[in-house]
Automatic annotation (TrEMBL):
<keyword id="KW-0808">Transferase</keyword>
<keyword id="KW-0665">Pyrimidine biosynthesis</keyword>
<feature type="domain" description="Aspartate/ornithine carbamoyltransferase Asp/Orn-binding">
    <location>
        <begin position="157"/>
        <end position="302"/>
    </location>
</feature>
<comment type="function">
    <text>Reversibly catalyzes the transfer of the carbamoyl group from carbamoyl phosphate (CP) to the N(epsilon) atom of ornithine (ORN) to produce L-citrulline.</text>
</comment>
<feature type="domain" description="Aspartate/ornithine carbamoyltransferase carbamoyl-P binding">
    <location>
        <begin position="7"/>
        <end position="148"/>
    </location>
</feature>
<dbReference type="GO" id="GO:0016597">
    <property type="term" value="F:amino acid binding"/>
</dbReference>
<feature type="binding site">
    <location>
        <position position="58"/>
    </location>
    <ligand>
        <name>carbamoyl phosphate</name>
    </ligand>
</feature>
<dbReference type="GO" id="GO:0004070">
    <property type="term" value="F:aspartate carbamoyltransferase activity"/>
</dbReference>
<feature type="binding site">
    <location>
        <position position="139"/>
    </location>
    <ligand>
        <name>carbamoyl phosphate</name>
    </ligand>
</feature>
<dbReference type="Pfam" id="PF00185">
    <property type="entry name" value="OTCace"/>
</dbReference>
<dbReference type="InterPro" id="IPR006132">
    <property type="entry name" value="Asp/Orn_carbamoyltranf_P-bd"/>
</dbReference>
<comment type="function">
    <text>Catalyzes the condensation of carbamoyl phosphate and aspartate to form carbamoyl aspartate and inorganic phosphate, the committed step in the de novo pyrimidine nucleotide biosynthesis pathway.</text>
</comment>
<dbReference type="InterPro" id="IPR006130">
    <property type="entry name" value="Asp/Orn_carbamoylTrfase"/>
</dbReference>
<dbReference type="InterPro" id="IPR002082">
    <property type="entry name" value="Asp_carbamoyltransf"/>
</dbReference>
<feature type="binding site">
    <location>
        <position position="169"/>
    </location>
    <ligand>
        <name>L-aspartate</name>
    </ligand>
</feature>
<dbReference type="GO" id="GO:0006520">
    <property type="term" value="P:amino acid metabolic process"/>
</dbReference>
<feature type="binding site">
    <location>
        <position position="136"/>
    </location>
    <ligand>
        <name>carbamoyl phosphate</name>
    </ligand>
</feature>
Length: 314
């Protein structure tokens, strides 16, 4: 069927075969990135603008590196450099950027739906690098690629997503993607950080880490999103770590070959014990970072192919 999207705004719009196509191409780009000559030409002649209205290290750096490895002209634009600081609306900013004739626009924004609004106003391909609590599609895709490479498959696995589910766009995108690929999903965390109605989505919900991690194949820890919290969601970080932080004792309830994931940045001693995060036999956190570059290369490549096809047909 092929990859049929004009933008990558979320996982919700992707069919399982499209997810598979991104991951298959990303596998090729892992090999390219590990080679002596890391450069391709899939985006040669195209302009990529990275527009980040929230701070980012991993996502912005990997999108920039992905674009450059594929030959794009890449421009980074942070909030400090934008006229939104001076009162310009998001739509006016979009129209200004559109007049510069970009081909790929990568956007992170603190408000859910903002990236979708931008996509309606520009003539280029838009990639969602995280919007509010809504979605973070490339994070879910890189997580999926990491799981598939480590486990040899991406279906019928038992996967526990643990921690601050309520504020996490990473959790939302992973729930959608891993659900589409027929995995058994568990959510583990305190009631104050668990959105209502999760059990109705086919997830098992646990308030006890040891029960929630029992015999799972994958343990995915989430960052406490303190910047999105406006109340007392947890008694203290120390108490949170005692109950929900991943340590060797809690991990022992998962399968012996279970892998440990975290989207970063990590709060060591809050969400995860440092020795677990650094355990080369269990932790795949550094692999996630590597897969992020490859997945973003694949997503931009596929969107650029469709963009060129649309322009040629116009």
């Amino acid at each position: 069927m092929g990859f049929r999207q004009d933008h990558l705004l979320g996982i919700e719009q992707l069919a399982p075969d499209e997810i598979g196509e991104i991951l298959d191409l990303a596998d090729d780009y892992v090999a390219l990135s590990r080679s002596a000559d890391k450069h391709g030409d899939a985006l040669k002649g195209l302009t990529q603008i990275n527009m980040f209205f929230e701070n980012s290290t991993r996502t912005q750096a990997s999108f920039e590196l992905a674009g450059k490895r594929l030959g794009a002209d890449v421009m980074n634009m942070g909030l400090e450099a934008s006229s939104i600081k001076k009162g310009e609306t998001l739509v006016d900013t979009a129209m200004t950027l559109n007049a510069m004739q970009p081909d790929l626009l990568v956007v992170r924004h603190p408000h859910s739906g903002a990236v979708d609004l931008l996509a309606q106003k520009v003539n280029c391909a838009v990639l969602n690098a995280g919007d509010g609590r809504h979605e973070h599609p490339t994070q879910a895709l890189l997580d999926a690629l990491t799981i598939r490479r480590k486990k040899g498959r991406l279906h019928r696995l038992s996967i526990a997503i643990c921690g601050d589910i309520a504020h996490s766009r990473v959790a939302r995108s992973n729930l959608i993607l891993l659900g589409k690929m027929e995995n058994r999903l568990r959510l583990v965390g305190p009631p104050t950080l668990m959105p209502a109605g999760m059990a109705e989505l086919g997830c098992e919900v646990f308030e006890d880490m040891e029960e929630g991690l029992r015999d799972v194949d994958v343990v995915m820890m989430l960052r406490l999103q303190k910047e999105r919290m406006d109340g007392g969601f947890i008694p203290s970080e120390r108490e949170y770590y005692h109950l929900f932080g991943l340590d060797a004792e809690k991990l022992a309830h998962a399968k012996p070959d279970a892998i440990v994931m975290h989207p970063g940045p990590m709060n060591r001693g809050v969400e995860i014990d440092g020795s677990i995060a650094d355990d080369i036999n269990r932790s795949v956190i550094q692999e996630q970072v590597e897969m992020g570059v490859a997945v973003r290369m694949a997503a931009m490549d596929l969107l650029a192919r469709n963009l060129r096809a649309r322009r040629a047909a116009a």
